[in-house]
Structures are given as structure tokens and as C-alpha cells.
Design brief:
It is built from three helices and six strands, in the order ββααβββαβ. By secondary structure, the chain is α+β, with helices and mostly antiparallel strands. It has one domain. Strands 3-2-1-6 form a four-stranded mixed beta sheet, sandwiched between helices. Strands 4-5 form a two-stranded antiparallel sheet. A hairpin with a 7-residue loop joins strand 1 and strand 2. The longest helix has 16 residues. It is globular. The mean pLDDT is about 85.
């Protein structure tokens, strides 16, 4: 499976970042990681206690998960969503640690 560009957002506010990765890990696995992290945060874990996605997903089993780029989610100059569309128009998957369409309150 070829690598594709995905994004991982740690939140939607100022000071939160949007990270861009190249990966061949399945959407199902990424969605499972997303749910796990969201559940941990709801239970009171800090961001520092969350699993490091690259450590788990880039495990040598023909999976790759490589850092590409990052951008602050909100700045005085704009939002990461606009930056992502301009810089990585091929990115169709965004995963959220907090907030976002897949976040359950």
C-alpha cells in the first residue's frame, strides 16, 4: 500500500497544532487510535500521557508513519485548515485528539 498524506489535530484552539504525516496505515487503525486518545483525554489523561502514534504505527510490519510538517491551528495570520488545503490538497483524512467531527462529548 502506498503512503498517503494525513493530518492529526491536537485541538482547535490557539496553541494547538496540526501535524501532517505520510502513512500507509489503514483508516480503521487510525480511527481506533483517534478514539483511544479521545477516551484517554476524557478520563483526565494529559496530552503527554497519550500514546505516540509514530511509535505504535511505524512498527516494522510494512507500516510507515512519518512526520512531514506541522502548523499551529489558529494564529493571527489564519487557520491551519486553510494552510493544509493550500499546502497539502491531497490530504483527505484528518484525525482529532479533541474536537472535530469525530469527537464525542
Amino acid at each position: 500500500m502506498a503512503d498517503r498524506i494525513i493530518a492529526l489535530s491536537e485541538g482547535g484552539g490557539m496553541g494547538d497544532n496540526l501535524y501532517v504525516f505520510a502513512t500507509n496505515v489503514s483508516e480503521d487503525t487510525l480511527q481506533s487510535m483517534e478514539r483511544l486518545c479521545q477516551q484517554m483525554l476524557k478520563k483526565g489523561y494529559d496530552h503527554e500521557e497519550l500514546p505516540v502514534w509514530a511509535t505504535i504505527l511505524d512498527n516494522g510490519n510494512n507500516h510507515s508513519f512519518s512526520y512531514v510538517d506541522e502548523h499551529v491551528n489558529v494564529s493571527p495570520y489564519g487557520k491551519a485548515s486553510s494552510w493544509l488545503k493550500e499546502r497539502y490538497p491531497e490530504c483527505k483524512e484528518i484525525y482529532y485528539l479533541q474536537g472535530g467531527k469525530n469527537y464525542e462529548q
